[in-house]
Every structure is written in C-alpha cells, then in structure tokens.
Amino acid sequence: MNVNKAEFVISAVEPSQYPEDALPEFALAGRSNVGKSSLINKLIQRKNLARTSSQPGKTQQLNYYRIEDRLYFVDFPGYGYAKVSKTQREQWGKMIERFLQNREPLKMVMLIIDVRHEPSKDDKMMYDWLKFYDIPVCIIVTKADKIPRSKWDKHIKMIKNTLGTVPSDAMVLFSSETGLGRDEVWSIIVERIAEAREEDEQQEEQEVRDEASE
Residues in domain EngB-type G (predicted)? Predict the structure, then answer.
C-alpha cells in the first residue's frame, strides 16, 4: 500500500479522548524498544512520524496515527521496562485492558516480538489477553536483519512455542531496515478491514431480521 497521507492525531489516556470517526483501528503492542515506532515509520515510508527513542518506556499513552483517512495505528505503551514504577505499570495495564475490552473500532492487534529473544511473560500475557477477548492478532517478528537468515526458522518456532500460537494466527517476519515483510503486513491489514466490514454488514442484517421477527 502506498501511503501519501499520514498524521499524528492524539496521545490519549482516557476513552473520552479517543477519535470518534469510527475508522478501523490497528493497535501495536510489545515490550519497550521492540521496534513499534520503527515498524509504523516503515509501513508508511516516513522517517520520523512515529518518534523512536533510545529511552525505553517513553510512550505512556495510546498514540493515534491516522493513515490515508482510512484507518488508525494505535501505538500502545511499551511494557516490561524495569524503571517504570509498579503503580504506573498497573495504570498502563488497566488502560490497555479497558481498551481491549471496550474499543469497538479495534479490528486487530499487532503483537511485536524481537526475533532475537524468547517472548517474555508480558508478551505471553498480552497474547493470552487477545485470545480471551477474541481479538484478531498478527504477530510481527521484528529485527530480522539482526540474525542470520539460516536461523530465522529456529527463532520463529521458538516464538510460536512460547506464545502457544494457533495456526490461524498471522505471523510476519519483519525488518524496518530492509523492508522485509512490509507488503505482507499491509496485505493482512487490508484483508482484515474487508473482513470487518463484512462482519458488520452481517450483524446489521441479523439485527434487522431480529427486529422483524419480534
């Protein structure tokens, strides 16, 4: 997908701050410094719309980016950073869980995992949350350029086993340096938007039938 228009919209903390235009939302979740901002920048072919930082834990809100007036990327706070206080971690956890539970425009969460490392307990918890709330997930395995190609399969298998993935989960090997996986991620996003639109239409038709039968 060619992106000609992309803009930062808001850093939101409360639901009252979330956009109200009902565009499909695709959230990015992962541990601090896993490469979420770099992923966004590579997907939209911009260098610094999403600000990358060498300081883990910098993102403390839900950062909304509107893409082509067709969808939002929602950048979650990075988790698992030791210098963040326990109180702040709990606040972030409540904010994210409330979002996952209640955010109707949310169509998919992209769970970002560093290919070099085994998924953390926080990664596993996030994956389990997504399954519990029946939210479609795409696992994006970043920093593929950091290990030899010959080790890709071994590391992918480790990630699948640790998370306990199911065959229906989309998984993409990605590199923000080389662009590996960019087109595949966009294909998954576009397909999910089409699926969600069809689901909404089916639900509306069912509601009409239910009303007619009353």
Answer: 22-195
